Amino acid sequence: MASDVNIWRSAMKVIQECGQNQNAKEYAFAQASERFDKGDLEEASRWAEIANTIDKLLEDIPRQALIPTALH
Question: How far apart are CA 65 and CA 68, in angstroms?
């Protein structure tokens, strides 16, 4: 099982890579589902943990932080 630190790092990396063009949580859950379908349960679990961590990280960001500063 991956360490908490590695999960958080992976979650941050997925958020950065997805940016505003793709939902990072949905992407991570899709990766988990894909791994599960292929029978790789360990990797599927890791991706599910990443998705849950992404949810926690994004939950802590106030919605106003996502609005461009020009609109504040």
Answer: 8
In-domain check, residue 71: no
Tell me, yes or no, whether 41 lies in a domain. yes
The boundaries of the domain holding residue 50 are 4-64
Q: What is the pTM of this model?
A: 0.79
**Alpha carbon of residue 22 to chain centroid:** 11
> Does the CA dihedral 16-24-20-68 come out positive or negative?
negative
Our count of domains for the chain comes to: 1
Buried b (16+ CB within 10 A) or exposed e, 32-64: beebeeeeeeebbebbbbbbbbbeebeeeeeee
pLDDT digit string, tens, across residues 33-70:
999 999 999 999 999 999 999 998 888 665 545 545 54
